[in-house]
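assembly run, all chains below
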Amino acid sequence: MRPIDDSPIVRDGKVLILAMDHGLEHGPVDFEPVPETIDPSTVFDVGTHDAVTAMAVQKGVAEAYYPSYEDDVNLLMKLNGTSNLWMGEPDSAVNCSVDYAVEECGADALGFTLYGGSNNEIEMAEEFRKAQEDARKHDVPMVMWSYPRGQGLKNDRDPETIAYAARQALELGADVAKVKYPGSPENMEWAVDAAGKVKVVMSGGSKTDDYAFLKQVEGCIAAGGKGLAVGRNVWQRENPREILDALEAVIYEGASAEEALDR
Amino acid sequence: MRPIDDSPIVRDGKVLILAMDHGLEHGPVDFEPVPETIDPSTVFDVGTHDAVTAMAVQKGVAEAYYPSYEDDVNLLMKLNGTSNLWMGEPDSAVNCSVDYAVEECGADALGFTLYGGSNNEIEMAEEFRKAQEDARKHDVPMVMWSYPRGQGLKNDRDPETIAYAARQALELGADVAKVKYPGSPENMEWAVDAAGKVKVVMSGGSKTDDYAFLKQVEGCIAAGGKGLAVGRNVWQRENPREILDALEAVIYEGASAEEALDR
Amino acid sequence: MRPIDDSPIVRDGKVLILAMDHGLEHGPVDFEPVPETIDPSTVFDVGTHDAVTAMAVQKGVAEAYYPSYEDDVNLLMKLNGTSNLWMGEPDSAVNCSVDYAVEECGADALGFTLYGGSNNEIEMAEEFRKAQEDARKHDVPMVMWSYPRGQGLKNDRDPETIAYAARQALELGADVAKVKYPGSPENMEWAVDAAGKVKVVMSGGSKTDDYAFLKQVEGCIAAGGKGLAVGRNVWQRENPREILDALEAVIYEGASAEEALDR
Amino acid sequence: MRPIDDSPIVRDGKVLILAMDHGLEHGPVDFEPVPETIDPSTVFDVGTHDAVTAMAVQKGVAEAYYPSYEDDVNLLMKLNGTSNLWMGEPDSAVNCSVDYAVEECGADALGFTLYGGSNNEIEMAEEFRKAQEDARKHDVPMVMWSYPRGQGLKNDRDPETIAYAARQALELGADVAKVKYPGSPENMEWAVDAAGKVKVVMSGGSKTDDYAFLKQVEGCIAAGGKGLAVGRNVWQRENPREILDALEAVIYEGASAEEALDR
Amino acid sequence: MRPIDDSPIVRDGKVLILAMDHGLEHGPVDFEPVPETIDPSTVFDVGTHDAVTAMAVQKGVAEAYYPSYEDDVNLLMKLNGTSNLWMGEPDSAVNCSVDYAVEECGADALGFTLYGGSNNEIEMAEEFRKAQEDARKHDVPMVMWSYPRGQGLKNDRDPETIAYAARQALELGADVAKVKYPGSPENMEWAVDAAGKVKVVMSGGSKTDDYAFLKQVEGCIAAGGKGLAVGRNVWQRENPREILDALEAVIYEGASAEEALDR
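ok done. output:
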């Protein structure tokens, strides 16, 4: 972890990552609720909202669409990822080198998934090592998607597991840890404490109603969380800019979920 | 994906790849219907037809035969491939480096198979990463043979699977996605949408009669597909130039299957 | 092994490493006995005690916290490590390159775990080889956490096993061998003899009472051991500086456990 | 495949490779029929016969014996090979780098085994890729020992399998394909056709009587084969030069087996 | 194999390697018969005997002890080795690079174990390839510990197996082959013949009485063997210099076992 408050992906110490790698991770079925989202441009348009500090996409999407948005959107290149077509212990392919992401695609930040608890954890951690050290050479922040899963884990939402995931991000050298919301502000606080100086952001998860979602984000911020990395809970809504307005209030202005919805 | 409309393998925004790597993938049995096709020259001769924008072959065939055709044929070097002599989860050997393909063999484009859904998907995706980034250095288009298969898949012709395959090509950074035809123009349209700016072409598959074949291609084009990558459905015919004449009409001139056959 | 008596991590021929990689190896549960230890700063503060010759941490913790302590603490970068979330034969991910540890983080020494007896011993030994030879280029001491474990081992505290572990450190080229205390000064002496010129230090293990712990350390020193690498037995105490005062007496001044506690 | 008719291992478009890697592949038991053949010099002496265009040996034999024969024998360095002491899916260790073979040992040609159909085919093909491209840098011909075998194959002498093996050599970029004789000139012709411009030579196999052996070679040549790679059928005879005289007649002069024996 | 008669590890065409890597391969239990041998200095002292042409040790022992003996002892760095703590198919970790051994430690020769017949034979042979070619760059002799073992072998003392092991050393490019003594001079002669120009030395094995041991060495020399690589049969004796005096007579002066013992 290095100080990243001056980096483009941070606003007032907070982070809001709009993720759109679902086409790779889940397949095009994730675009069905709002069919036009199958066109990455529609999500990049959403990403121009001031609340969003970075868009997280895979290399191919960045190559094809980012050139039209580079003045309005910060690029977080997700370095690894895989489809859900295969079965087996969790693993993720490294789809982009750091040099290519930064030098050719103009990435402002990098993202890397670690499946702690998988039989492939060792291999993934070693791939992360190379990516992290390469990122340092370019002085670009590294966000870890820290998601314990695999045959060694019974419950990947267990508060201790989430706190462990946050700590892994600190110990291995990430600058931001993206973790599942562990169910309560108290549990989130454990994760935040475990991560030390690393910024912890919650992942948005599958789509829920506005209030429930914002209440979680409020709990995350109250617990010392630094923001959110979200996909479906934004772009699977009919009016994604509305929820971004509300998220902006909760994350950057300290509003409650109720206040944010009343605006 | 990068703009490739000005590349030699594109004609009026469309692509027609004549593939002849069957000697490696299927063995010499594929040449039995038209015995002289066992001689690669006969297929290269077919490849000089104006409808064909590139010939796809393995390295050894390019080394031995392409020097006689380099003025008349564009070379698409297939970078990986394997025999069907062995058994096991789908995989493909990387048989040619990008540098060798471009600098020594004069490749105008590159091809790479990804078996999404295979237990070897991770490894293949990482091999693709290197090939794709090397291709960018040479500014040469990359075509992905995106063929989900393996123990994780029940039905590799399922429309959602084909759309997923097309999306993988976009997310991972291909310029052209070669997918199986998913049975109807509506299904093909899903794949085309999922691939975004990436050009989707259908694979020719095993030999069918002229009308059925051209009708599929017509459906592909109507759905926004950008063409075809075909082998047996051309060179397993007694008169391959005739079917190429018809394909030319359907792909580049927007003719229907019936119109193309009536000419 | 090379002479390291003049290196910063040695004081009067002895070594006292304060280890804090438990957040990675065991998870945040290890911080529960003294909750503020979840903040690495509190442990770094402890590490400024004169008795401590080096702090052992993972790369991410070094990046985030060491800059504030570099005048007061010597850094021992632990190069490999993993979580206990997964199951399987003992193994450890290489999380930091030697170049990065020394050039970017300012490491004064390096640490590497070898699980002799694991089915992964071969792979770990080969990773150690590279790390050790890289360490030589930088003239930085290498400490081996030599911990036999795995399906091949019935009893990892067997005196012969501990002596074997110490010998592995010598044969493979470590400068300091960290081993489990084998239960008696006589057994420790075997390990010390087996390690030859390599300094053997005992690992602190899980928290015990002051007298029992200091008596072990006294036994270690009496047997020719050169010190201690300890974590929980220091920072899981309410007043870690008190036990460090006592350890200082036992390790550097030859005091008995009783004398050290009476001061 | 590149034109190799001007290379030292070709005489009048034909090739006769005298192989002696049996000490590695089969063990010293192969030398028992003619005990002095255990001394490589005796076989190198045979290799000075004009009919022989190259000797195929492993690196160590080349280092030790070739310096005495470099004026009289062309060296074909076999790059991979293994013992028959172990069990498992067919595989072969890469025992020599191309640079070492050419620059240090003076190799005029290179040889590489591919076990198509083995579960290790992918790995072997990728090792071949590197060797082949390195060979091109040195402009040295590459001979593939194309031997389908492994759990995927019921019958490695099946004519279709042999033709497939020959085609693999073409597709992957060999200059010469060494295959088992598929039982008849008609079958051999299929293999020759499948290999296209690549020269196909038959392997000598285990020792048979003069007439049967020469008849096979006659059939091979009649089918368009370009020669022979032979070991035991030459140096397991009491007078190996006699059979080489006969082979010279059959291969280079178009004699029948009967004519060759009558001379 | 290259000519090594002028190298420092050869005396009058013969070789006597004193090996002391037992602390790694077998553990400290091997030092119990003569407890002071746990200190490597005591064995290095033995190694100064004129009969010894090189000491074989692992990297760490060389780093720590060889600087005191470099004027009196020739260093043979054993490049691979492993503990007997784990179970599984025979394998050996590469613990030292050739560059480090030669440039940093001053090695006069190198040693490498190959377990022919192990499922890991392929991997070990490929590691040997790199080591051997690197050794050539430094013009340093390579000794192969050629020890067939693994699930493919019923009897690793079978004369044919030993002869095969000796041949592997020749084929793969070693300069000296260390093999088990195959039970009789006739059997040893087969191994010597199979190795061709490569010098074959017998391994000392576990401790036996003086006469039996010397008789074996006499048989080895009579069969054309070039010496011995010995550990326990020297330094597990109370007076190791006495047996070295006798070995000197048998190996370099052609004495019989009886003559050597009568001196």
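The interface with chain C takes residues 1-2, 116-119, 121-123, 125-126, 128-129, 132-133, 136, 148, 150-153, 160-161, 163-164, 167-174, 190, 193-194, 196-198 of chain A (CB under 8 Å).

The mean pLDDT of chain A is 97.

not gonna interpret more than that til we talk
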